[in-house]
């Protein structure tokens, strides 16, 4: 994963003046260095390198401490974008220094940077899901569709080149459908696609965090396909311009140190972190917690895990088939030197660690932490006993582990008790494979848990 910087590039970097994003020289020998960070406030798996990091002020504090030592005044410009594409455009134009985005946009970032002679590098991870649960295909609440294979001849909204599009392509192929011929893909931004689904102009929507959870929470859509069924890791990460980091390595080091601070805060105070992100984005805190909570769909860890890098390599052919990139040298794009330095001696252990086993959670109104349970049935029994003060109930899918809202899940009862599933198709397969099992409504499951 390590990258060797040539002497020529290093020398050229030293000759660059302190102007633009890199800063500007000032009288008296002092200097001001401005770093521009591109982030996506609504893509909440980037919060430790974006909205949460910004709200905590951790990056500014790190830079201020370093500035006192090296006599440089550091300034931070935060620029919020809806997707990763404009961040890449600004990076290759030299106007954004550090950006965060999903795995497919990261590959586009790598390809575009190399093409334009302004290379970028993946330097850390924000949130990940080793099975792919950050992407979901949704349909309307009253839709008769119950399985992805039923999308033949249907219109599906997605954002071409996004991880959600990659999930859709792979899932359709596994269902025996040709993504280019058997469905009509409509290329739309997430908000436009959500509106199109509600208006009935598309039959399904394949999108990334936090849109599926938001639409489910609002009762505007239900899950048709859980991306975790692919069992292929998906993640969001931080990319940095090579020329900027060669010139100002201390800035990137400060950023990654601050990201570690934001990650620790999210892990230690998941409810408070969800509330902060909700206040800054306008998203319901319950939706933020679904993804970013203690047992949420995403796990936050800045280390560049080999399994995530391998998944990135598997993403390249999907983008090549769509003619969005040519060959991408993932190993050259990944640069773990900076995050290893920021993390210190514990990096090896942490990079080998994975998400904890999923558990069910109940969030009561006014509570500063959730109550956790070993089984969905225990969570429902607790929720039934606190019916008037329940804010949200989260349960993991019995097969994929993907956390979902209990009142939006598909419930099954068998001889072992109650099980929750994100989608009807997975629940149906479980029922078929387990004689005596049957589906039941959430209200029935809640009553059964209360009576047990």
TrEMBL record:
Which top-rank group of organisms is this from? Answer: Bacteria
- Give the UniProt keywords, A-Z: Signal
Which InterPro entries does the UniProt entry name for this protein? Answer: SsuA/THI5
SUPFAM superfamilies recorded: Periplasmic binding protein-like II (SSF53850)
> Source species, please?
Streptomyces crystallinus
This chain's protein is named ABC transporter substrate-binding protein
UniProt-listed PANTHER family: ABC TRANSPORTER SUBSTRATE-BINDING PROTEIN (PTHR30024:SF45), ALIPHATIC SULFONATES-BINDING PROTEIN-RELATED (PTHR30024)
Q: Which residues form the signal peptide?
A: 1-27
Q: Which residues form the SsuA/THI5-like domain?
A: 87-273
Record's keyword annotation contains Signal: yes
């Amino acid at each position: 994963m390590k990258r060797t910087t040539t002497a020529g590039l290093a020398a050229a970097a030293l000759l660059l003046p302190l102007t633009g994003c890199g800063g500007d020289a000032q009288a008296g020998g002092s200097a001001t260095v401005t770093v521009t960070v591109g982030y996506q406030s609504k893509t909440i798996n980037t919060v430790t390198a974006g909205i949460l990091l910004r709200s905590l002020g951790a990056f500014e504090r790190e830079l201020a401490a370093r500035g006192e030592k090296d006599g440089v005044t550091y300034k931070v410009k935060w620029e919020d974008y809806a997707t990763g594409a404009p961040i890449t455009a600004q990076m290759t134009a030299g106007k954004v220094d550090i950006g965060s985005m999903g795995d497919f946009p990261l590959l586009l970032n790598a390809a575009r940077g190399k093409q334009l002679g302004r290379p970028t590098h993946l330097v850390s991870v924000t949130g990940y899901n080793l099975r792919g649960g950050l992407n979901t295909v949704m349909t309307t609440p009253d839709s008769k569709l119950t399985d992805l294979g039923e999308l033949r001849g249907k219109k599906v909204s997605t954002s071409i080149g996004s991880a959600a599009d990659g999930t859709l392509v792979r899932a359709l192929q596994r269902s025996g459908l040709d993504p280019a011929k058997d469905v009509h893909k409509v290329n739309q931004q997430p908000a436009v696609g959500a509106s199109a689904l509600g208006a009935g102009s598309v039959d399904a929507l394949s999108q990334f965090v936090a849109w599926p959870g938001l639409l489910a929470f609002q009762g505007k859509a239900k899950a048709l396909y859980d991306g975790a069924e692919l069992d292929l890791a998906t993640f969001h990460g931080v990319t940095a311009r090579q020329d900027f980091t060669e010139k100002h390595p201390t800035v990137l080091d400060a950023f990654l140190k601050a990201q570690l601070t934001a990650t620790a805060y999210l892990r230690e105070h998941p409810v408070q972190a969800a509330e902060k992100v909700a206040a800054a984005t306008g998203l319901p805190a319950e939706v933020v917690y679904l993804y970013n909570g203690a047992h949420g769909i995403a796990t936050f860890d800045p280390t560049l895990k080999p399994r995530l890098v391998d998944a990135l390599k598997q993403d390249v052919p999907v983008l090549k088939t769509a003619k969005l990139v040519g060959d991408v040298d993932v190993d050259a794009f990944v640069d773990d030197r900076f995050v290893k330095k920021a993390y210190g001696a514990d990096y090896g252990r942490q990079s080998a660690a994975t998400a904890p086993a999923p558990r069910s959670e109940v969030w009561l109104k006014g509570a500063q932490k959730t109550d956790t349970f070993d089984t969905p049935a225990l969570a429902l029994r607790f929720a039934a006993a606190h019916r008037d003060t329940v804010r949200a109930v989260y349960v993991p899918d019995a097969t994929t582990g993907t956390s979902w809202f209990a009142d939006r899940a598909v419930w099954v009862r068998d001889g072992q008790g109650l099980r929750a599933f994100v989608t009807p198709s997975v629940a149906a397969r479980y029922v078929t494979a387990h004689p005596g099992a049957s589906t039941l409504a959430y209200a029935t499951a809640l009553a059964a848990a209360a009576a047990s």
